[in-house]
């Protein structure tokens, strides 16, 4: 029987990049997904529930985000905090880039390869149609830019490098929970 | 601003003054739609226009100087616009400078940074997706543009044609406008009643041209085949020129008219003076005129002449000529010149233009976008082709053109603001209304433009256009102000020669005398000319500074570029190193297998690997190795006698060549790693925990080594010429060293047996580490096999000496097994590349005579690791081979080695060895001499070593 811990947003905020306020807000949202009488700390949300959070609802990569940040497809409160922490403004660029890499590595082979790229683009375009050859041209262009060792896929280092030069990666890769 | 300083005071306090009432004749028609439409009637005499404002110098009780305010405000509007625009542009350019980067990762960023994770609302998500599509399309287009092959002749001719077409259409539009204005004037003169069309002809034509010409230009632009972005620029520039041309031709036509009006006035005046004597019979008319004048001081209607007004206002003409004036006015009436107040007239035209422009915009939005959208949307199902994707499609929202339209509107405001003070206010309302209409239309029935070329990022482009527009729009106004006499009958400046006289007048009358004097001085050429010169100089100076700054700017940018590429290179190197590591891992197993098969022939491959290993080894390993080496030397010295036998057992004839080879290598190594030694101290500390284990192993290894050395030394005097056997012996040594290294590695491994994988990661620098696990396993396997150890006792003794330092006994058995295996290693060693072995040997020798253990010692470890693995394998596989096979192998090896040495002198190592040959010999001599004394030296060295070792250990412990 785990010892009952007191609710300490301050402590949690020391462990994450989040402020107290953010943690309390997350906790509220989290609790709203839990059954009433139960302690939210022992509850786990499924990825599906997580994806229905307003912050993730329309994100084309929500399933990937859930996969990357959950353990075994479920979210404990800590998992959610961890995710929010990575997406907060204060997380370091490297950390963000790393998780972005995991999110974009759709087939989870440790590299962003052509296949990944194409499905990323497809996800981004939503329902919009892009010609097949354009898609291929785009992926080859991307690889040509960022694939420094010419192995036709992006490793974490390469991805990080490319992102570190980007002016708006930090702006775009954040979620305010 | 205008509202605050001009309109409000006029409304509040201006009522009792000026001519604000509508002439009675016009009252009848004032309510007609027709009149309202043409901005006549009530509107004409409202605050909307110049004519409404009174000319009294002061109004109200506070003495507000309205005319002055009118003039100053008019000027201030221009100045303010200028300043705001310039400020904004400067800010923008600063921003763009800050973010200016020749993006190397355009596509990456566009894809990976495209999604804004903050988006949490489906609509926003949809439009974001659309925006991403746009940006991606743009990127692709850009790419395609780059790749497009160009047929120069065709494109150039096409472009010329296109430009001619554009110029023609521009000229045509200007001519049409001029023609229309002219015609309308004629019509006004000849016709009494104008139709609706005739009245609004000018504005309608202008608006139509502004509507239609851009699409024509777009068609033309398709001919040119420019890059889409340049196409856009061209398009914008052309449209801007068109708009400007329209405005200009309009204003010029208007001013022309004004000119004719003022000329007419002048003529009228002069004719009036002529007619004073001639016409004396027009009393009735005079009476009539008097009536009118009494009733309404300002009679502006089409029937009333300006002169009546003038008379009432300007006493110079009026008093003597009133009756005659009437005739003149009548005569003028026949000319049908209704607009005695040209400022009002210009303002009216501008306002009319603005209104009609609004109507056309609304109409085009409704017709072109909305109804087309409806049509396409609802009829596409029952049409013969796909309406949505083919001909009519949905309208595209053309950001650029809409922005241009705004610019055009602004230009109209600037042009008309002076003559129609409420034009800006009206335009603001109009634009707000249009904005909402537009946004509705865009959201409901427009599709995003297919090529959005970062319209927002060319901010400064639009601002520059606006500035251009402002300047050009200001010119006519200023011209009019400076050139034309204000109309006499209306407005705040009536009765003055020029509009700007108001300023000088105010200065003269309302400021103290000294101020006036100062002003006259300041405006005298004495002051103005130097001031101008100074300004020119300033401009020149600033410009030159700007040029130099630009230059440095470019330089810095270049620097950044190069640094970036270097950055890239670094990353590449890192990546390459990683890959090599991976490959190395793959190879090592191969090496091992090679080693197994080495006996037969595979030797060449291993040396390479060893070499690579040397490079990769991490400083951490060095420290531990150093210690081990020193120990080995000592041990070797001690163990010589005992060890000799085994060494001798192998038919080794140490030749001078061997030592030579060895020494050079050692030196080289020393050179290479001398620097490393210093740094390795910290590494040593790290490795300290391991070192004790290493020592034991080393000791064991050393035992084997000393044997070889001794054998070599002994042999050396005997057989100087036979280098082959020596090599073999050396090889043995080297092999042992390798073993030592292995031990170290093993120790690490053993220690971390549970966390082996982590270790590997830690020691990424050297691929070797990764190999270790295998070695360890092998070791374990071997132990049972290697039960015999001729040198065992010696080794043990040595070990005992070292034991203080040696903490880990658990490793011992393994080390022992290694020691036992050592003899077998010879075989394995043969397999190893000769070069490597020679190097190793050299190192060993070096240590023995030279006191500087550290440098030399450090080097060997790097090279040894791979051989170790080989040896181990060999041991495993060849426990039975023992001495005999060794000897055979050795012979073979020796032959091969000698061959290789002689033949392969080309290799750097060998060359170096040759160069250092003499030194080697010396060392040999020393060796030989000291052969007997070796024990002493060794003992000394051993003492030193021991001393040093404990120190090191202590350090490590700390």
Automatic annotation (TrEMBL), chain A:
Taxonomic superkingdom = Eukaryota
Note the PANTHER family from the entry.
CALCIUM AND INTEGRIN BINDING FAMILY MEMBER 2, CALCIUM AND INTEGRIN-BINDING FAMILY MEMBER 4
Q: Which InterPro entries match?
A: CIBP, EF-hand-dom_pair, EF_Hand_1_Ca_BS, EF_hand_dom
Q: To which species is this protein native?
A: Alligator mississippiensis
**Gene label:** CIB4
Q: What is this protein called?
A: Calcium and integrin-binding family member 4 isoform B
The alphabetized list of GO BP terms reads: integrin-mediated signaling pathway
- Keywords, ordered alphabetically: Calcium, Integrin, Magnesium, Metal-binding, Repeat
A GO MF annotation of the entry reads: calcium ion binding
Cite the EF-hand domain residue spans from the record. 92-127
The record's Pfam families line, in alphabetical order, gives:
EF-hand_7
